[in-house]
Amino acid sequence: MREVAIVAFGQSDHVRDSAETSEVEMLMPVLHDVLAQTGLAARDIDFTCSGSSDYLAGRAFSFTMALDGVGAWPPISESHVEMDGAWALYEAWAKILTGEAETALVYAYGKSSPGDLREVLTRQLDPYYVAPLWPDSVALAALQAQALIDAGLADPRALAAIAARSRAAAGSNPHAQLRGEVPAGEVLVAPLRTGDCPPIGDGAAAVVLAAGDTARRLADRPAWIRGIDHRIEAHSLGVRDLTDSPSTRLAAERAGAFELPHGLKDMGGAPMVDTAELHAPFTSQEVVLRRALKLDAPDSTVCINPSGGALAANPVMAAGLIRLGEAAARIHRGASDRALAHATSGPCLQQNLVAVLEGER
Q1: How far apart are the C-alpha atoms of 231 and 248, rounded to whole Å?
Q2: pTM, rounded to two decimals
């Protein structure tokens, strides 16, 4: 199998409202940044793939307008997924593995500010049994949080601690929307308070992928994608155990997260990583993910969401790609040797993607 690595990562400053900035204007500085990091020009990219949602933009084929930020002339090899950019990265990774490309540019963006995000996300629901009830994303996350509390797996104090840790970590992230101490806030939907929920905001992110020796030429320390996989839970919430995420666990297994890297000791089945960037928009979802990935041991030394995670900035359709990019960036600068990155989509962690990234030792 060809070696594929993330060789550059860039993101915008995430803000509550970017009304004065179009998608193209939001994207262009990020795209210029990642290309400048590698020394590549747009013409040197073999494949371009993007992730976004027309539901956020409120118009069909909105992603074609964003291509103005890339430059689609002369004609380029391009694709788009109506998903978080993490899934666009998955497609680009597969494209490079087949030998059809040597380099790839992946980008994602989302502007949640123009509409009512909680209402927009109801379009993801099962159209026969759940959508007619109109539960929004926060109400469903509260249902999951209450299931955890009822099962004795979490309590409001533990959830508040996750929020505090995430926002504190974001203090060193110049792109985060929320930084530092944030009060628990009022109850939105019991048992979730404002601090347990992600901010609504706008933002964009991009990465450059490259194969083998090309990656080594473009980056001092490439973040090699050693494994990547994604799995899906049942669409119907009524047939799922909301306190667990079997799809995350299976994706991690297939991505090699629990395999023993050369030169490291077995840690009793826990992931062989030093960093985990988890796409957990709600504090309760981090509890579910930590349990599924065996990261909840009291003596665990894995650094979870050192960027602040989605609780500090959650641009819908880009937050998952940012988890992959943040994990890769830590490898690039030598702060991590082996990292796990997770992305999710859909209500209550319905779809989950897990990647294992490594730096050369």
Answers
A1: 7
A2: 0.95
